[in-house]
Amino acid sequence: MKLGIVGPPQAGKTTLFTVLTGQQPGPDALAGRTVSKMVSVPDPRLERLREIFEPRSFKPAMFQAVDFGAAVSAAAREGEERTADAFLVVLPLYAGLDPAEALEELDLEWTLLDLGIVEKRIERLEKAVVKPTPHREQDEKELARMRRLAAALGEQRPLRELALDDEERLALRPYGFHTLKPRLVIHNVDEQALPYPDTEPEAVVTVCGSLEAELAVLPPEDQADMREGFGIEEPARPRLIRAAYRLLGLISFFTVGPDEVRAWTIPAGTPAPVAAGAIHSDLQRGFIRAEVTAYDDFIAAGGSLKAAKAANVTRLEGKDYIVQDGDILEIRFSV
To answer: How confident is the model at residue 124 (pLDDT cuts 50, 70, 90)?
Structure first.
């Protein structure tokens, strides 16, 4: 998962990068160059599994946070942005910004960028389809799709509003269209707006960036005291990551044992053999069955796989089983 941080100038994008990574801005960030870092996904369930198994290796799920540099050329920045899986759109509400208006302006900018790419692709395809090539039928199909995108973008409609099926989305993925990417809106507020609201709109997270960035670089014991003083129940980083997982439709499953405790990130709705393939391709190719224990059932059984089996909460599932968030899997396979 690659999360790109975007937004208006001086919105607090680099501050949010610090919130996510716990890393103070270095020379590259201060110089306006693009910076990125792999960040572990906090998961109390995984921490509990580590306590139980005391493994030699512990591997949480990871994601990549990217702060696109303000000093790089517009073309270079746009190219870098297209590689993100989703955008974290930072809006500085402390500056009196109207979030709806800011998002509308951003969508207009991105719509024009996407339209430029689509029009160039249409121009190439129109020349290709008149030639008797082996992939002519495929080119004609793509041309029809691109004309549909161009019509929507020409009406200033972002591509996320189109009803695209999974096959179309997969075909469009290499283009990295800005208006097709999921976006999580970050309302960056000042300390006067604390405490955070109890409920928020879908795909919106409120963050006091300056305060949360200060908290993120403190030792854990000092963080807790400072959060209590400001009425912040939970740090921003896990809140943001959970929201990003929901936005992208991602879940985690676990593999456990004395050698390794590890979290794996997969799309919701993933069948067991495909989830096994996230561990290793051989496990998907030779998949037979999966031993499945839900995390809550495992804990209720005393934190023991043996006790979970004795309590009949460990199940043998086949190829049609859809892996659920928090499942503990052991894959049976043969190659």
So the answer is: very high
**Lookup: tokens for 163:** 């009803």
Contact 88, 204 (CB under 8 A): no
CB within 8 A of 48, min separation 6: which ones? 299, 303
Token look-up 């994601």 returns: 63
Query: Of 160, 180, 200, at which residue does a domain stop?
Result: 180
SS3 258: coil
- 43 CB contacts (<8 Å, ≥6 apart)? 60, 61, 252, 263
Domain end (from 148, 180, 212) = 180
Structural domain boundaries, residue 308: 269-333
For the record, the structure tokens of 247 come out as 């936005």
CATH of the domain at 120: 1.10.150.300
Q: How many domains does the chain have?
A: 2
Partners of 266 in the beta sheet? Answer: 251
DSSP state of 154: H
Quick: pLDDT tens for 273-323. 999 999 999 999 999 999 999 999 999 999 999 999 999 999 999 999 999
- For residue range 45-59, list pLDDT tens digits in order: 999 999 999 999 999
The upper half-sphere exposure of residue 287, i.e. CA atoms within 13 Å in the direction of its Cβ, equals 24
| CA–CA dist 197, 255 (Å, integer) | 36
Q: What is the DSSP letter of 271?
A: B
